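Sequence design from tokenized structure. All designs in this work follow the same two-part layout: the structure record, then the generated sequence. An example of the structure record is given first.
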């Protein structure tokens, strides 16, 4: 199979490299000349474990290449994937489809022979119809099927998620389109990943519904965590106790500082907007967004309370800035409202992140960045763990305490045991546990 992947962001690059690894011939296209030149030199613009090696081996095997011009790869392709960005539109929270539509117009002009054009970007329900209309308008004789194939990979675990998916959703009613995408994903049938064929609009909605449901699960357990603290229960045991029920499932029940990232906040906002456009009110999803926003902002107060109620003139050490481990992504990271809140309360903030500090400096230029957790803790009146990087899971607690001015730790990811922290003489706060 010959595949053209339009857009070398997160989804495009991971999907392109994985398709090439299946044995397909893949060309990744991006308008950003600097990015393409860097990729040709073997430099990967994002941090994703294993991606550099995967790209390098497939480039070496001549199954993967990069270009800024989509004409030749689209003309030769059996399937063209649109994996360009769909950011939140400023002002109204709708997904901004400018990049998707301009990609569709350019693809239209370059099509040759039967081709399946597939939207992989997360796009509102009905976008596939518009992509098809644009292509047919621009190139009436094109032999084309437009399908939806949403992506469910997580940053930091993207390659594993791509190669071992729970399911693959392909949205098109066209038999030839189904056959081509069936062939593209055939290597995954070895992993017994169910290939689910649906209509195009259904596939588009599955993506949003999945992300909104996961965001709801997290928000639900976060509220149960707040209640656990008040009634003296342990939210981790509550999560395990309910998660062992197969109808509920154990995953995505980790209480924390609220969800962030490039997907959940953006996609839940977009889903609410899509529903409003169709005169449907998704009250649960709306509540999830509101609860999560308030939660993220409330975390600074939690730190202040743990440190005695007043942060003016005090120093707070922040461990972990990215929205989750194994990424350098700072988009909608809980650390941003947290640090901003701490600064507003008059605290001085020192921070460390294993990978994300360069990105973080763009969002949070006014704080001090430290080379490691111990340097970060030096002289601090409180230390907050915001992201559960593996590097923070086995800190030398005695050394940490010796560095700090006051032994106060707020663990927003519940990675330490209250009894261990007490044994080391820390005042310890976590999420939804009695400490
Ligand atoms: C998410 C989905 O998990 C993917 O399936 C989806 O493909 C992707 O969005 C997307 O739409 O592209 P991602 O944003 O990379 O993936 O990260 P997650 O691991 O889902 O974490 C999202 C946020 O939820 C993070 O801030 C994380 O800390 C938080 N979270 C997650 C919790 O607070 N508790 C949990 O139990 C799980």
């Amino acid at each position: 199979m010959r595949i053209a992947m339009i857009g070398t962001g997160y989804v495009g690059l991971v999907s392109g490299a994985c398709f090439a690894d299946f044995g397909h011939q893949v060309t990744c296209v991006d308008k950003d000349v600097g990015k393409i030149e860097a990729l040709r030199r073997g430099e990967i613009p994002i941090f994703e474990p294993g991606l550099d090696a995967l790209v390098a081996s497939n480039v070496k095997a001549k199954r993967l290449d990069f270009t800024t011009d989509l004409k030749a790869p689209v003309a030769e392709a059996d399937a063209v994937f649109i994996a360009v960005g769909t950011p939140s539109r400023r002002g109204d929270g709708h997904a901004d489809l400018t990049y998707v539509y301009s990609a569709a117009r350019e693809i239209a002009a370059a099509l040759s022979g039967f081709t399946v054009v597939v939207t992989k970007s997360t796009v509102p329900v009905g976008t596939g119809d518009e992509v098809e209309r644009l292509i047919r308008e621009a190139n009436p004789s094109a032999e084309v099927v437009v399908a939806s194939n949403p992506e469910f990979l997580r940053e930091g675990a993207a390659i594993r998620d791509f190669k071992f998916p729970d399911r693959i959703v392909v949205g098109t009613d066209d038999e030839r389109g189904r056959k081509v995408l069936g062939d593209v994903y055939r290597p995954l049938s070895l992993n017994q990943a169910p290939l689910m064929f649906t209509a195009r609009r259904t596939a588009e909605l599955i993506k949003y519904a999945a992300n909104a449901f996961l965001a709801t699960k997290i928000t639900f357990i976060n509220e149960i965590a707040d209640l656990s603290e008040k009634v003296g229960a342990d939210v981790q045991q509550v999560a395990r106790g309910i998660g062992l029920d197969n109808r509920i499932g154990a995953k995505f029940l980790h209480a924390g500082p609220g969800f962030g990232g490039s997907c959940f906040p953006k996609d839940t906002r977009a889903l609410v907007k899509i529903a409003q456009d169709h005169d449907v009110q998704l009250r649960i999803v709306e509540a999830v967004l509101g609860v999560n926003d308030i939660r993220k902002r409330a975390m600074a107060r939690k730190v202040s309370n743990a440190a005695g109620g007043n942060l003016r003139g005090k120093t707070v050490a922040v461990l972990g800035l990215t929205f989750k481990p194994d990424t350098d992504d700072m988009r909608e990271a809980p650390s941003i409202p947290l640090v901003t809140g701490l600064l507003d309360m008059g605290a001085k903030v020192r921070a460390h992140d294993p990978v994300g500090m360069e990105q973080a400096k763009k969002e949070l230029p006014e704080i001090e960045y430290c080379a490691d957790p111990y340097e970060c803790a030096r002289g601090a009146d409180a230390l907050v763990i915001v992201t559960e990087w593996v590097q923070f899971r086995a800190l030398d607690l005695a050394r940490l305490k010796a560095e700090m001015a006051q032994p106060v730790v707020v663990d927003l990811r519940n990675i330490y045991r209250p009894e261990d922290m007490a044994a080391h003489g820390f005042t310890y706060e976590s999420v939804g546990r009695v400490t």
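The chain has three domains: 2-198, 208-289, 298-429. We note this feature because it recurs in several other targets discussed in the main text.
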